[in-house]
Amino acid sequence: MSRPRPSLQGIAKMPARDRAYHELKFRILEGRLPPGTTLLETEVASLLSLSRTPVREALIRLEEDGLVDVRPRHGITVKALSVEEIEQIYQVFSTLEVKAAQLTARRGITTADHDRLDGILTQMERASKRGDIEAWSELDDEFHSELVGLCGNPRLQAMLRQLWDLQYHARRAITKLRPLPIVSDREHRAILAAIAAGNEEEATRLHQQHRDRADEQLVSLLRQKTTFPTKA
C-alpha cells in the first residue's frame, strides 16, 4: 500500500538489523525523534538496546530512504524538510497516485473490492459529519492505499511508499488545521464511481483534480504553521 501507518507490529520477531530499521523509522515518522534530532551511533544503539552493527546497517537504509543524514564519526541527524521540499515530493507523489487510479480503472475491480472501498468512504463521511478530522485522515490514508494496492504495479507502489514516508510527519502536523473535508468526500465518491465503471479517462481526470486541490490546501496549511521545521 502507498500509505502504510507506522507500526511496531511483529518487530520482536525480526532480525536485529530489521528491528533497528523499523523501530527507528517508527520513532522518526511518529515524531518521537523529531526533525533536527542529532544522535551518535552509540546513542542510537543504547536507545534501541542493540549492538552497533545492526544499528549501522539500519542507519544506512534510513539515509537511502531520505529520512536521516549520516556523518561518519558524528552520528545521524533526522532530516528537516522545508515546505518547498514537501511541495516537490507531492508533485511526484500525486502524479504516481493519479497513474495508479488510471491503472486500477483499466484493470477493473471486483464487487468485493468496490464494497470494501465503499465502506471506507461511508466511514469517512460519518467522520466528516461528527467533525473527527483525525479519524477521517486515517480513513483517507486507507482509501488511497487500497486504490494503489489494486493498480497491479509493484514498482509504482514501492515508490509511493517511500515518498509517503518522507512527508508523513509534515502531513500529521497540519491534520487538525484542516477544514471539514466535505469536498474531498464528494470527490472520492466520484473517483470510485469512475473506477468501478472502468472509465480510465474520467478516473484520471477526477483523481488529478482531487490531488491538485488537496495538495494546494496541504502546502498552504504548512506555510501557515510557523512551528513547522524549515531549513536555514
Concise description?
This protein has helices spanning about 15-30, 40-50, 50-65, 85-105, 110-130, 135-150, 155-175, 180-195, 200-225; strands at about 40, 70, 75-80. The protein is mostly helical and about 230 residues long. Helix 4 packs across helix 7 (about 155-175).
Notable features of this structure?
3 strands, single chain, 3-stranded antiparallel sheet, mainly alpha, 232 residues, 9 helices, Four Helix Bundle (Hemerythrin (Met), subunit A), globular, Arc Repressor Mutant, subunit A, 2 domains, disordered C terminus
Please tell me about this protein's structure.
- With 232 residues, this protein is mainly α.
- The chain folds into two domains: 68 residues, Orthogonal Bundle (Arc Repressor Mutant, subunit A), CATH 1.10.10.10; 142 residues, GntR ligand-binding domain-like (Four Helix Bundle (Hemerythrin (Met), subunit A), Up-down Bundle), CATH 1.20.120.530.
- The protein has nine helices and three strands, in the order H-E-H-H-E-E-H-H-H-H-H-H.
- Strands 1-3-2 form a three-stranded antiparallel β-sheet.
- A hairpin with a 3-residue loop joins strand 2 and strand 3.
- Helix 4 packs antiparallel against helix 9 and helix 5 runs antiparallel to helix 6.
- It is globular.
Number of self-contained structural domains:
2
Helix content: 55-70%
Mean pLDDT across residues: 89
Query: What ranges have pLDDT less than 50 throughout 5 or more consecutive residues?
Result: 227-232
Continuous helix count? 9
The main β sheet shows up as:
3 strands, antiparallel
> Strand-residue fraction?
under 5%
CATH architecture of the largest domain: Up-down Bundle
Count of distinct strands: 3
Regarding quaternary structure, how should these chains be classified? Answer: single chain
Shape: globular
Adjacency order of strands in the biggest sheet: 1-3-2
Radius of gyration: 19 Å
Structural class designation: mainly alpha
Q: Which CATH top level class of the largest domain fits? A: Mainly Alpha
Q: Looking at this structure, what is the CATH superfamily of the largest domain?
A: GntR ligand-binding domain-like
- How many angstroms separate the termini? 34 Å
Order of helices and strands: HEHHEEHHHHHH
| CATH fold naming of the largest domain | Four Helix Bundle (Hemerythrin (Met), subunit A)
